[in-house]
Every structure is written in structure tokens, then in C-alpha cells.
Amino acid sequence: MVAPKAPAHMQTRRRRNNHQPKNAAHNICFLMAGAIFLVFFCVFLVTSGDGDGGIVRAGNNSGIGSNGGASGGGRMRQSFHHLVEKYELKGYGATHPRSAFILVATSELSDPITSMTNSISSILSHTDRNRILVICAVFQEGVLSKEQMENVEGIFDTMDQGTSDHWHGLTKHSHEVGATDHTHGQKIRVILPHDGTEGNGKGRLTSSKSVAASRRDAANYVHYLVEQHEAEGLKSPEEHILVTFIRPDSLLATDHWMDTVTHSLMNTDKSIQNHVPTRNAISFASSTTNTYVESETKSVNLELKPVQSHASTNDLSSSHGHDKAYPTPIVEGSVTSMALSTFLNFPVEDEYLDSHFAADLEMSFNLWLCADGIDMVSFLRAKTVLGTLQHKDKASMGVTSVVRLAHTWMGGDKLQVGRQVLALAAKDGYIDEASKLDGSLDYLPETSNNCRSFQWYLEQVNKAMKKELDDLPPIEEVDLPVLDSKGQKKLDVDPQEALAKKMKEYDEESTDESQESGEDNKKDEEKEEEEKKIPSKPLSDLNKELISTAKMVDLKYVDVTDDFAEFPHKGAMDEQDTFGYIHDEKSLHAIAPPINLSKDKMNQLCGKDDGNKKMLTKKVFVDLEAHEAANRLAEIGGPPRAKIFCLVYTIATNHDRIPAIRETWGQKCDGFMVGSDVTDRELGTVHIPHEGPEEYNNIWQKVRAMWSYIYDNYYEEYDWFHIGGDDLYVLVENMRLYLESEEIQLAANGGEYLPTKKPTKQLPLFLGRRFKEQGNENRIFNSGGSGYTMNKAALKALVVDGFPTCMPHLHTFAEDVMVAQCFRNKLEVYPYDTKDENGGERYMPFAPSHHLTYKIPKNKSSDWYANYSIDIKTGLDHCAAKSVAFHYIKGDLMKRMHALLYGHCKN
């Protein structure tokens, strides 16, 4: 990442030498003073005699006489308290500046007071109080009830008395309520809707509905407070106050972090001053989205959604100083620290951005395009408590913010990047919705001429976003409604003229109103009939019958997490077993690791002549020609490709099976995840706890938790979801073509007509290899061996309507049988027949060679496979030419199959 030079209008906010210690003598004096203070403090510990190991607690008056005099220890204690009170008010000066903290509680929090108190407690327990200027706890309108608003200030007043662990210099202690041995200045400022501050009206806080506006209000209050401190002699002009934004579902997790932040922002290491840029902001790593993996950063894609990214090798090698700071395209969002003047001098301020992520995105663009950028420091860490604001639905933003950010920073429909962002929003129906939003483009801020272009940001900072942009066909004209300044569709004629014309037409109308109404209704019916798209071939009678009992499902996401309190919705754990982890399901698709196989080994595997090779060269193939044609069609405005999420379940002892999946078929899925009992980012495994023990006889509970996690976090981004074990091989191109086929589209649309637009309702489809349980045709299920596939409607129906009452506490290994039973008994959804037109099976429960050589015994009841199977064929005819999946495939066999299917053996 190229180190940028700040534009002229922002250079005054860079950390310069006047913010550093004056000279070497100044440093020595400071160290000597610190040493004297430590000696003084040690004497105090020895003589205090309170038996608390140096922990100062209220209510302990040992050493202080009843006549008001004091022993030597008591006098030292009093001196210490005077020092505490002095630095509480004045801090340490320019070299160790204080920070203001701003936290904004929104309606997204289920328990805003608890979330806020937890976050503020973490500030106090990890930060020297002498370096805290103020903590602004902002509660937005509608977050608190009237009763809570009356009591909330008292809660934080109690915290301000030091009742929780807090630091004074190097001393960590706490007090009991009402302690008077030393006083604490007021650090916590509760800001409620319509609240204000005194002092000639300066810094007055007004009611704000957006996170961005609330942050700005609080920062203005801090600025006013700084001015008052300087006027009262409690702050020197050389002390440049910091501001730290903490999302109120996050906790600080690093002691003495302010020294690192100050060093990183001021860049006091002269040996690297000429080589490394001084950043304007420091972003903390989060233990739920970035569990202390040094190279991981946070970025944003063309859909303006957050994604994990990685610092380049050059960025890591040039990470400056002992802090190991490296650039990140956007702030992580849990904790962000910068100079107060930096934030207040942002040239772009949009007070209508609706979420934490939208406000963070604007902050990031200001920092990179108009200042010196953002660093992450590898060991500055935060933890997310419940993941509430980091949940997929909450980590992005509404349509208004998407439109406003695209127009403000990306040129709107004037630049290619803006067109693509708006076009992607239009695909999801956002623009139509935006056109109805009154004021979506009101008071749109203008970017300063001194800021860099967004093209610079793409080329130098967010190269992944640029690659995403380059991979899309250019949009010459945006086929979107033109919006006026209030986000309304512009009319071709003046509204008053249009109204007058309509009134004239109405007055001249001579047709009877009822007759006209009848004709209009008839026209609507005829139009609706014309819009129905007839399929080229109807569904088979069997599949018509199988889908006849299912009900259409509204595809709108319904939150059933209940704050992630109970199984199966408790979510995932990170490497430290902390709940709230959200897996980056797109990382494997982006990385696409090559097959780890030597040339000699590849030749050996390719040269082997057996049943697997015969089936995969004589019958089964990957239809790459049709796949590439569908890609080209989608690129020029044809039907979009189906987005598939692939899910594998395993346990830690089988993690050695995962690399082969990642190197072959796993990377072809749009989203990919491995559910396990241990989280390992390198492998893509995710620890998803569930009810009961982690064992084979409890896979049902494991799968319930996995499907719930997928629905809770990824439902809205994908069209189809496939699950299988760690010995599964999927022919992803064939699966995608099958799911996009007219047959499957017809079935999902109800079985009579093909869809003509993006559906809002859908028939649940449950696809896989149909088996008769114990030969019972009334208990047909999809075998878990080759995995089974569900569309959005099926996943939602299963998780939302099925799981709560369908054997919620049963412990069994037969998860595939249980899923089918829930579909059958609770939802009247039955496994769809997935055979091809020749009767070949698409989903295979065994390896290719097994199906090639299998013979059906005369007595079917003597062989479980014959007993379970439904009208199977044998030999080459058993498998469909465009098969979708095989089972019992692992290690070298998986790599060999991949090489045979994709032409690596020929090459």
C-alpha cells in the first residue's frame, strides 16, 4: 500500500515533532521524576499497613488519628491521594495526552444499558483514569424507556465513584460506594435525547437519530470541554486530546493501550520517521472478526458490505516500530482512536448515515482520501460481547446510506465505481425502494477538492475492491430512476402541468365509471396472463405430486435468534472460545489455493486405471462449456448465476481431511464453511457449540446448530445451501447448472409457470439422493452421504418453523433422517426426485467405482443399499452424466477425481 502524503488542508492534523518530547534532557527529567514517584509509592505500600497489597480501598482509615492528625503512613497516603486528584483533573501533559471516549447506543442493542456499562467498565479497567478526559455515553432516541431515562444517570454516577476496577497511574483498585479517601472527577457523561450542556449554549447536544450525528454531537461537546479545561488551566495548549470511538457491544482487552496509540499516532520513533507514514487513526483488532491474526484487516466490497481482508507482504514488512502497525482499508469498528482535531476537521460530514458501519465507512473514507489513513496495531485488541451490532443484518446499512455514500464518495452515476455500487443495489431492489424514500439525498455533503479521488483509494488502498470492479463489465449508462434532491423519481413534466392535464382528461371522460372499471380489471387480468411464462417441458408427474403439499414461503428474513441466548442459535466461538464469531465465508473463494500435489504424484494418480477413472472418463463429466456460457450471459445482463453456500461438518481429529476439499471443490462455492468443534481460520473451520456432547451419536444437534448459524448469518446473501460430511466431493459447476435449470426454477415457482422476476415467495425444495428408510416408502429421506441441497424457502422453513418443535432435544446420529422427518411432519415438504432425464442419479452415496460395479441382488432385502434405493440403474447408467456429488471421497482420491474431471491428467 503506497504511503500517501496528506493533502495540504489536513497536514495541520498530522502528528509533528512539537507533539514529541522536547529533547533528550526532557526525557531524562521525565524518567527521573517517574522513578522518584515509584520510590515514593513503594514507601507508601510498606508503611500503609492496610494489608491490601497496595490496593487502595475506601473506608480504610488506618494510620489516620481521630484528631485529624496523621502518622507517617497516613501522611504518605494523603500525599498519594493528592497526586491522584491532581492528575485526575490535569492529566500528565502533552507527551501523554488524554482521550475522550464516545459510545453510541442504538435500538439494535437488546439491552443497551448493560451493553453500555460493560463497555465503559472495560474502559475503566484497562485505562489510566488520569488519561480519561470524559466518557460520553450517548443513548439515541427510542433506545430507553421513560423509566430507564430517569434512572440511567444514577447507574453511571455510581460507576464514576470508582466502584469497579480502575487505574491511577500504575495502581489498579476499586472503591465502595460513598468512599471519600480521594475524590474522582466526573468522567462519565450520559447524553440522552434532547439533552444539553451548560455554558452559554456552547456544545449544546441536540436529539440525533443517526450514529454519525450522535458521534458529531458528542465530539462537539468534548471540544467545548477542552476549551473550558484550557481556560481553567487544567490543560496545556500542547496537549492534543485524542478521541476513541467504542461500539457499545465491544470491550477493551489490552492494558496500557494508550501508550501504544499515542506512539503510533505521534510516531515518536525518529529512526523510522522518514520511512513510514504517520497515520491519522488506529483501529483495534476484534476477537470475533479478527482474532489477533497479524495480517488480517477489514475492507468493504462493491455492495458496501464489510469483508475481511489481509495486509500485503509489503505492508507487513514495512510495519513500523515495535508496535507492528500496518494499514487497513477501513476501520474494524470495535474500537477506533485518533486525535480529536482530526475528527472535527473531517471535510465530509453526513449526519444521515443510519448505522455504526455506515458511520465507520464515512470515517474511513475521510481518513484515507482526505488525510493519512488508518493503521491496525497487531496487539491492540477488543472483544465483542454478544456480536449484536456485528451480526450480518446489523453490520451493514440501509438503502439511504448506500445511496448517499455512493453519491458522496464514488461519483454516483457519473463514475464507473458509483454506477456499479448503485447497480448492485438495484439488483436487490434497493433503488426502487430508495426512490420512495423522502429525503434520501437531502443535504448531501460535498467532498473537498483537496481530497484524493476514489480511484486513488481503489488503486492504492482497497485493491480487492478494484479487482472486483475490473471483473465486472463496464456500465455505460445506469438504467436506474433519476432521483431528485429528495430521492424522489424525477418526472418528465412539471407536476402541476401533469395534474392539470389529468383533471382535464377526467372531465372529458364520457364512459360510465363502472364499465371503465370493469374494462380495466379485464386488461389487468390479460396483462397478468401474458406475463406468465410457460415452461418448455412440464414437471414429471412424480415431482408434481411431491411438491403439491408444500406451501409458498415469504423469503423475507425473520430474526429468530432471541439475542443468541439458547441453542441452536447461540452462534459460533472464535479460537479463544468467545461467542460472537462470524466466519468469512467468501475467503476460500477469493484465495483459491492450488492443489498441493507433486508432478510425480499427479502422474501416478492419473496413470491408475480403475473403476473410478472409467466412470469419470466414460460417463460423468463437468459441463464447463455450459458453465462458461452461463457466466458470459450473466455478464451481459442475462440471468444472474445461482449463489451457492457449501457447508461441511467435521471434528478436530478429522481436520486433516479439509485441505483436500479447500484445494479442489470447496473454493468453487460462493460461500464455504466447515462446522467443527474447533475454530481454525486457516482451514475455515468454525466451532459451533450445540446441545449435548460432541459425538457421532449427537450429530442431529450439531446439524441443527449449524443450519441455524447459516440462516442467522448468511441466508440473505445466497440462493442455495448444500451440506455434507468431510468425505464429500461436489461437482459445483454441475450443481449450479442443475439449480439454475428450467426444471428447478419451475418447481420453486410452484410447478406451473416459470418466474419472470426475482421472487419474493418460493416453494421449499429439498434436493438430494432419495432413500427409503428401512425400505419404507412412507419415510423417504435424502441421504446425508452425498449431502442434500435446500433453496432459501426450505432453509427458512426448516429453521424458523421446523426446528423449534421438531425433536429439539433428541440425541441421535441420523441427522439426515431427522431433517427429512421435520420437513415431512411439520412442513409437508418431501424430497424431490433429482434423477436426470435418463434415470441416472445426480447425488451419489458412494465413490464412482462402487456405482460402476454394483449389482442389485435378487433378494433386495438382503442388501441395505438395494433395500433403501428407489428404481436405481447399474453400471455406467447408474450415474447421471452431469452428476452433482459423490461420497466416501478423501485425500488423494479427491485430488485424483478433481484432476480427472478438470483435465489436469491430460495436461
From TrEMBL:
<feature type="compositionally biased region" description="Polar residues">
    <location>
        <begin position="309"/>
        <end position="319"/>
    </location>
</feature>
<keyword id="KW-1133">Transmembrane helix</keyword>
<keyword id="KW-0812">Transmembrane</keyword>
<feature type="compositionally biased region" description="Basic and acidic residues">
    <location>
        <begin position="519"/>
        <end position="534"/>
    </location>
</feature>
<dbReference type="InterPro" id="IPR029044">
    <property type="entry name" value="Nucleotide-diphossugar_trans"/>
</dbReference>
<keyword id="KW-0472">Membrane</keyword>
<keyword id="KW-0735">Signal-anchor</keyword>
<dbReference type="InterPro" id="IPR026050">
    <property type="entry name" value="C1GALT1/C1GALT1_chp1"/>
</dbReference>
<dbReference type="GO" id="GO:0016020">
    <property type="term" value="C:membrane"/>
</dbReference>
<dbReference type="GO" id="GO:0016263">
    <property type="term" value="F:glycoprotein-N-acetylgalactosamine 3-beta-galactosyltransferase activity"/>
</dbReference>
<feature type="compositionally biased region" description="Acidic residues">
    <location>
        <begin position="506"/>
        <end position="518"/>
    </location>
</feature>
<comment type="similarity">
    <text>Belongs to the glycosyltransferase 31 family. Beta3-Gal-T subfamily.</text>
</comment>
<feature type="transmembrane region" description="Helical">
    <location>
        <begin position="24"/>
        <end position="46"/>
    </location>
</feature>
<feature type="region of interest" description="Disordered">
    <location>
        <begin position="503"/>
        <end position="540"/>
    </location>
</feature>
<protein>
    <recommendedName>
        <fullName>N-acetylgalactosaminide beta-1,3-galactosyltransferase</fullName>
    </recommendedName>
</protein>
<feature type="region of interest" description="Disordered">
    <location>
        <begin position="1"/>
        <end position="20"/>
    </location>
</feature>
<feature type="region of interest" description="Disordered">
    <location>
        <begin position="303"/>
        <end position="324"/>
    </location>
</feature>
